[in-house]
Write a structure and sequence with these properties.
- The complex is a heterodimer of chains A (282) and B (448).
- Chain A has 282 residues and is mainly alpha-helical.
- Chain A contains 13 helices and no strands.
- In chain A, helix 1 packs antiparallel against helix 2.
- Chain B is 2% helix and 42% strand.
- With 448 residues, chain B is mostly beta strands.
- Chain B has a domain of 117 residues: Methylamine Dehydrogenase, Chain H, CATH 2.130.10.10.
- The chains are: A mainly alpha (282), B mainly beta (448).
- At the A-B interface, helix 1, helix 2, helix 11 and helix 12 of A face strand 7 and helix 2 of B.
Chain lengths: 282, 448
């Protein structure tokens, strides 16, 4: 278990670094953020590896597809109040949340366990649907404050806490409070998707990270200064890393799991459209 | 002074000078960010976080006598870069000098390139030791003479004056980099130079400021797919068509500009397979190359990653010919170093004049001399305590664990705030410049 605690700690530290990088002088340093995102990804993989023993290609495949789908869904609406989301308190529930793409959550968990994939997806979907309309769901997280923190960070104002929680629940049934990594990851995935549509060049603020570095994106989303830039940053979902893990191209359509994913995507789409328009314009 | 021959361990290093404030409270603007000797070694330039360049000149009066040590004294100080603000992106552009590179001297004046994150400037440093005196129409202080008092005609003549060193910006190369510039390198043709940022490398002509050619672009069409960035780039010292650039993944690519206009396709790829037994969360970070330097001969190149220095033979791509551990005892501390951001420190490295010894910095104000010919290494320290004139530097040892011997320092006692990132070696003599946070130490070979 120790390694999980360690991985969790590293992830928290990484998220903090990503957030701090946005307020430091001279702009976001691409190189450092890329490295931090790599660490974040590694830590996440280790953290999740215990849940699902044996990485399944299928899982990765699904995850890749999820991300692709999310990319097409465009950005999530960015909600100001990034600082709140970052604060390591349980404020994440208070943040207005947009139902994050449940696929993301599914994805993060699904990566590790293909056998539970369907059950996970269906669970998420069910929970997603129940909570998706509530943008300010005050879901009481079962996870510890730490989880909340990571969750908040990962999602900024965009991720619905309910999603996170839902996401976390199946994954952490046996793990107790260590929900963070999946949530964080799912949040980041969503943000990344959102940003992906914004192909505008904001190099300084862009953090190149593998797909698992959604947290970075979220951290960047916290910046109230430049929403468009944030969207760009988050949109870049660093699928490069994802591609490395799974051999499937991201453009593939989903397999049987796409059903639930699709529904989730649709829900996301409702919320993302206004922002996606803004991003495209930017 | 002795030549640059001889191994690093045959040479005994003595303290010569230290520049900078003694104050322990370091002003951020005084933090030294780059150190570079010029091609003759007579001038030593430093850049700091405040955007200033300070040039020291070697006192050559006593060079003929081997007993005397030549000293470096301040020659010129000027503000190279100012902080700027990018209004479009709402970003502040730091004035910190990232790199200084000297141009080979062509006439009486000296030229250097200095760069911050976004803009490169060509500075001309010239001496003035004469001034015209005896103007007919104005006084010496510049006031106009009363025309009624002028009854004769006189022509001004040049008279000696106190030496004045002037630095003037001759070229400003701006608006070519979207990302942070990390390297500049002057080509051996003395006409062009390259500048590299995280994703692109541009080729400039020294005379032309409104245009640059992009010769490397690793920006993916979809930024989400980014997996590596450019960390350093350098031209080959003799072949003007060849340059290398290193990446955050630990690879070095050599490119030939004759092959195509856009050198995205490398002609050689230098990469060493990763040792799977050393895999950890931070493997990717510590494999990121922070500096790459060609040897003076042009046959080898040296790369610095977080824990080691590697010497590559340009004819062998699959592995380095030599690998030296700089501070292997830090491998077990990577997590703490990640937390305090030290793992992101970008150490530089340098060759001595005849490529027999390489030097790089470490923590606790330690720096390492790695002798390639004798396969020996030594750790030395730049500290105020060892700063008595001509005091010989004592080798330092770090105890990784277990019983700490006398005179050893344990890993946990190392001061990670005292880091030596920038070092430079005189091109001909055994004189080295070592930059601690805000002080510049100059050490010389002991002469008996």
């Amino acid at each position: 278990m120790e390694y999980k605690v360690e991985a969790h700690r590293i992830m928290s530290i990484s998220l903090g670094k990503i957030y701090n990088s946005r307020v430091q002088r001279g702009g976001i340093k691409l190189h450092k953020n890329l490295l931090v995102s790599l660490v974040l990804r590694s830590a996440r993989q280790v953290y999740l590896s215990d849940y699902y023993s044996g990485v399944c290609l299928n899982t990765q495949h699904v995850e890749a597809k999820e991300w692709e789908l999310m990319d097409s869904n465009q950005e999530k609406p960015l909600t100001p109040a990034p600082e709140e989301s970052l604060s390591p308190s349980t404020d994440c529930n208070q943040n207005p949340v947009v139902p994050e793409d449940p696929e993301v959550q599914h994805t993060s968990q699904a990566v590790e366990d293909s056998t539970d994939l369907h059950s996970v997806y269906s669970k998420h979907q069910a929970e997603e649907e129940s909570s998706s309309e509530d943008s300010t769901t005050d879901v009481s997280l079962t996870s510890s404050p730490v989880t909340c923190e990571s969750q908040c960070e990962a999602k900024g104002a965009e991720v619905s806490s309910s999603d996170c929680e839902a996401d976390a629940n199946p994954a952490t049934v046996t793990e107790g409070n260590s929900q963070q990594p999946p949530k964080a990851h799912s949040c980041s995935n969503r943000k990344r998707t959102a940003e992906k549509t914004a192909s505008n060049d904001s190099p300084v603020k862009r953090t190149k990270v593998t797909s698992s570095n959604s947290s970075e994106e979220e951290a960047e989303e916290m910046d109230t200064g430049n929403v468009s830039n944030l969207i760009t940053i988050f949109g870049s979902s660093f699928s490069g890393l994802l591609t490395k893990e799974s051999s499937e191209p991201e453009a593939e359509t989903e397999d049987s799991d796409s059903g639930s994913g699709q529904i989730c995507c649709d829900q996301m789409l409702k919320n993302l459209n206004p922002w996606s328009t803004a991003i495209v314009a930017f | 002074m002795a030549g640059a021959g001889g191994g690093g361990n045959d040479v005994q290093w003595c303290f010569s000078q230290v520049k900078g404030a003694i104050d322990d409270d370091v002003a951020e603007a005084d933090i030294i960010s780059t150190v570079e000797f010029n091609h003759s070694g007579e001038l030593l330039a430093t850049g700091d976080k405040g955007g200033r360049v300070v040039i020291f000149q070697q006192d050559t009066e006593n060079k003929s006598q081997p007993q005397c040590r030549s000293e470096y004294n301040v020659y010129s100080t000027f503000q190279s870069h100012e902080p700027e603000f990018d209004y479009l992106k709402s970003l502040e552009i730091e004035e910190k000098i990232n790199k200084i590179r000297w141009l080979p001297q062509k006439n009486a004046a000296q030229f250097l390139l200095s760069t911050n994150d976004k803009t490169i400037k060509l500075w001309k440093i010239s001496e003035r030791d004469k001034r015209p005196e005896g103007y007919n129409l104005k006084e010496e202080d510049g006031r106009c003479r009363d025309s009624t008092t002028i009854t004769t005609l006189r022509v001004p003549v040049f008279r000696p004056m106190d030496l004045m060193v002037e630095a003037s910006p001759r070229r400003v190369f701006a608006n070519a980099h979207t990302y942070h510039i990390n390297s500049i390198s002057v080509n051996s043709d003395n006409e062009t130079y390259l500048s590299a940022d995280d994703l692109r490398i541009n080729l400039w002509h020294l005379e032309i400021t409104d245009r640059s050619f992009n010769i490397v672009d690793i920006k993916p069409a979809n930024m989400e797919e980014l997996t590596e960035v450019i960390t350093a780039a350098e031209f080959h010292p003799h072949q003007c068509n060849t340059f290398v650039y290193s990446s955050s993944k630990g690879t070095i690519r050599m490119c030939d500009m004759r092959a195509s206009a856009l050198c995205d396709k490398h002609s050689k790829l230098f990469e060493e397979p990763e040792d799977p037994s050393n895999r950890s969360f931070f493997s990717e970070i510590i494999s990121s190359i922070s500096d790459v330097k060609f040897s003076h001969s042009g046959r080898y190149m040296m790369t610095r990653d977080y824990l080691s220095v590697k010497i590559w033979d340009l004819n062998m791509e699959n592995r380095p010919v030599e690998t030296y551990q700089v501070h292997e005892y830090l491998r077990s501390k990577l997590c703490s170093l990640y937390e305090n951001d030290c793992i992101f420190d970008k150490f530089e490295c340098c060759w001595n004049g005849n490529d027999s010894v390489v030097m790089t910095g470490s923590y606790n104000n330690f720096f390492r001399m790695l002798d390639r010919t004798q396969r020996r290494d030594v750790t030395l320290e730049a500290s105020r305590e060892s700063s008595k004139p001509r005091q010989v530097l004592k080798p330092r040892r770090v105890c990784a664990g277990g019983k700490r011997k006398k005179d050893e320092i344990s890993v946990d006692s190392l001061d990670f705030n005292k880091k030596i990132l920038h070092t430079a070696w005189h091109p001909q003599e055994n004189i080295i410049a070592v930059a601690t946070t805000n002080n510049l130490y100059i050490f010389q070979e002991k002469v008996n």
